[in-house]
Amino acid sequence: MAPGAWEGLKRAIRNQEARLEDPAEHTGLFIPQGLRPEPVPLDLKVIVTGDESIYRLLTSSDNEDFRDLFKVKAEFDHRVDLNEENIMAYCAFICRTCEDEGLLAFDTGGAARVLEFGARQVADQTKLYTRFGQIKDLLIEADYWARKDDAGLVQDYHVQQAVNQKIYRLNLVEERLKEMISDGSLLLDLTGEKVGQINGLAVYDLGDFSFGRPSRITAETFAGREGFINIEREADMSGRTHNKGILILSGYLGSKFGRNRPLALSASIAFEQSYDGVDGDSASSTEVYAISSSLSGLPLHQDIAVTGSVNQKGEIQPIGGVNQKVEGMFDVCRATEGLTGTQGVMIPHQNVKNLMLREDVVEAIKEGEFHIYAVKTIDEGLEILTGTAAGEEGESGAFPEGTVNSRVAKRLDELNDTMRGYYQGMASNGR
Question: Among 192, 324, 371, 410, which residue's CB has the most CB atoms within a 10 Å radius?
């Protein structure tokens, strides 16, 4: 915003002196000259801080001078390992902040809850958050609730109250979406079984607050050669990563069922009641389950929401926002149907280490009222969602009778025969 200041800073560093200058001199205008003080010698080091985007901007637009004057680049991570040394450093930061800000001291439970908050911010059971501005804000607000409670120490429930109150101030959109699901404005089945229908999980990022919620995903399969029709892409509402996910799942199904024959298949896939666009590939495994259900005729459990991307080998890959997604499904189930003991979320097994869930969710899982299923492959997920064995391909290339994959293969054979008969009929009619 002040390019003249940037040029002046570079001259001061290069010449090792500070000189009084008129900013208009550098615009090419003639400025009357008067008496000027002598330059002040400089002997200093300049440290510039900023994010990666600013560094790239400076290196690209002012490459020669910037790299010559600022030779040393050091990157700082926003998380550190959760070990004894860093735990003690975290506690020391809490004590120092209490002294500087005149806060009440934190007892062991309160400090532990702050550490838990730090781990939750980076969604990793083995890391701690190091952007201490937010940690400091939490300490100050927890002190407020402790004083309001006339407590002598800040305890764990004061810290949790500070966290809950911050969420309450920011979660208006989340509450409105829950209301729309509860009153039926947003269609969502959380009980029973349906063919070609499944609940995926999406994360809504509002900048200072993010939350997850389940969304209905449907798939319809029929004879044709159009392949996989991504309705979101056709409506210009699909991002590049989501489009890539659709292409990958088509590659997986093609390699599994179309190696010895063409897939005479058309399949339409849609996120129902999605009006803001869809991006990310975390629903690609969910879409495979919906397509497999539509082809096999086997219904899927609607009380299990699914997240996870898939590769062309059928392996489930990790995703982001796993805590928000699990908690989003939990909150919707509790607010609509109530916890039935069969509801849950299916996640990639690699994301288990990222689980830093709210206390009420953890308690419900302990009591068996809510479940988390960690899967490694599409076949594992199909068995959980359908209650039927997926079936492994034998040496002959066939799947065991009655399994999910055998039903899918049989339906694809029927569609292939249908298309062959259709084109033969057209040929005999001279078309």
Answer: 324
Q: pLDDT by residue for the chain (431 residues), tens digit each?
A: 776 788 888 889 989 998 887 666 666 666 666 677 888 999 988 998 888 888 998 888 887 888 888 989 999 888 999 999 999 999 999 999 999 999 999 999 999 999 999 999 999 999 999 999 999 999 999 999 999 999 999 999 999 999 999 999 999 999 999 999 988 888 899 999 999 999 999 898 888 899 999 999 999 998 877 778 777 777 777 788 888 888 888 888 888 888 777 777 888 888 888 777 777 788 899 999 999 999 999 999 999 999 999 999 999 999 999 999 999 999 999 998 789 999 999 999 999 999 999 999 999 999 999 999 999 999 999 999 999 999 998 888 889 999 999 999 999 888 888 766 655 555 566 55
Q: How far apart are the first and last CA of the chain?
A: 69
Torsion sign (Cα): 270, 272, 276, 282: negative
CATH of 79-170, one of 1.10.10.410, 3.40.30.10, 1.10.8.60, 1.20.1050.10: 1.10.8.60
Closest CA to 162 of 182, 181, 134: 134
**Which CATH class, in words, describes the domain spanning 179-409?**
alpha beta
Nearest alpha-carbon partner for 212 in 248, 241, 171 = 171
